Amino acid sequence: MAAMSRRLQQQGRRLGVVPTMGALHEGHLSLIRRAASQNDVVIVTIFVNPLQFGPREDFARYPRPLSRDLRLAQAAGADIVFAPSAAAIYPAGFQTSVEVGALSQGWEGRARPGHFRGVATVVTLLVHLTQPTNVYVGQKDYQQALIITRLLHDLRVPCRVRVRPTVREPDGLAMSSRNVFLTPRQRRQALILSRSLRAARAAIRAGERRASRLLAAMRRRIRSEPDVRLDGAAIVDAATLEPQQVLRGRVALLVAARVGRTRLIDNLLVDVS
Ligand code: PAF
User: Which residues lie below 8 Å from residue 178, measured CB to CB, with a gap of 6+?
Assistant: First the structure.
């Protein structure tokens, strides 16, 4: 992969890279299509990264439909799919990790210790191997998108990170590879995440600026669904992820919840006038 991307770079080709863990859905495919429209070559990486899963998380059961993914990636415009083995990425003796500071500490970083170290380490490796001109990530993993942007900026990697909007099902559920785990009943109840975010956004647009009020309403809504266990709700500055008391500027509304055994996250960005 490294030799191939070096050769393509030397030929002056623009390389668009879409890092994924596979189980591709419309959210990934929209990133691939976007990459195809802005680059000469599109590389999709598929790697279920063991370093970013905690010991009690779903690494073993994470879906890995590789041949379906290859078909979908190609149809969406991928030229190369890089799907390395864990031994190729982390050979015996591997002991380096990459960590982004403050942005990794709050929110998902607190709920999933070590998760963003795993993400930052693998993204550094993948970018090193694929030499992108542009890297495409989804807004659905909002904190991750900020961390990847910060990481590549801080390490002076000469590429641009393009954060693309969350793709949703027609009823509002944010697309996620983990949605396949939901039973039909859980799938219906999971809608409370996007609904609570939209209700908070409507309240902000109607003039509410107190984060405590907005969060209380979000929590109440989410707890009204019997199979949904709220893991956290926050309203933070969209650039720094610092919690806000009185809303100003661009804010991110964040939620995380378990629906049955499946952990889902969602967010909305709101410009507070
Ligand atoms: O968002 C994901 O799929 C993963 O966290 C990423 C960025 C591919 C790193 O493993």
Answer: 58, 262, 263, 264
Alpha helices in the chain (DSSP H): 2-10, 26-38, 66-76, 86-89, 102-105, 108-111, 115-130, 142-154, 184-205, 211-223
Tokens of 31: 């990133």
**For residue 29, what are the CA distances in angstroms to 32, 53, 170, 225, 269?**
5, 24, 16, 31, 22
Task: Report which secondary-structure segment, H or E, holds 137.
Answer: strand 134-138
Cβ contact 269:251 at 8 Å = yes
Tokens of 216: 């209380």
Instruction: Mark whether 28 is an active-site residue.
Output: yes
- The response to whether residue 270 sits with its C-beta less than 6 Å from ligand 1 reads no
**Domains along the chain?**
2-164 (3.40.50.620), 177-272 (3.30.1300.10)
Atom index in ligand 1 nearest the CA of residue 119 equals: 9
Does ligand 1 lie within 6 Å of residue 122's CB atom? Answer: yes
Query: pLDDT digits over 97-145, tens only?
Result: 999 999 999 999 999 999 999 999 999 999 999 999 999 999 999 999 9
> Does residue 220 register a pLDDT over 90?
yes
Helix (H, G, I), strand (E, B) or coil at 184: helix
8-54 per-position pLDDT tens digit = 999 999 999 999 999 999 999 999 999 999 999 999 999 999 999 99
The pLDDT-based confidence of 273 (bands split at 50, 70, 90) is confident
Q: Give the N- to C-terminal CA distance of the chain in Å, as an integer.
A: 46
